[in-house]
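Comment thread on ticket #2218

A.B. wrote:
> Attaching the input chain for the structure job we discussed in standup.
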Amino acid sequence: MEMVRVLCWRSLAILCVALGMIGVIVPGLPTVPFLLVAAWAGTRGWPRLEQWLLNHPRYGASIRQWREHGAVSRRAKCAASTMMLISIILIALSGAHNVIKIAVPLFLCGTLLWLWRRPEPRG
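C.D. wrote:
> Ran it. Output below, let me know if you need it in another format.
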């Protein structure tokens, strides 16, 4: 039973690393949030992967800052805000049902409020 649990955590970690790497290439798909989940899953089933993510030269600092302080960089906040604004505009211009045109922007605005209330990394 323990092995099944470890395999599930590892599968989640691999999926999130894969989605994060796709996010490096595809505009609008985030990278760091997927790597945060991968590191979280790694603590439960793959400590070596977790350590690799925490020490990654590009993304390790963001993961550590989130874990230690719940901090999000201003650059990440601006990028997320821009992507959410583009999404809201595209939904408004689409033929989506009015419920979608109202619910999604409200959800994204709530997400933005939460995001901008997060502290920024020190130094």
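A.B. wrote:
> Thanks. Noting for the ticket: The mean pLDDT is 93.
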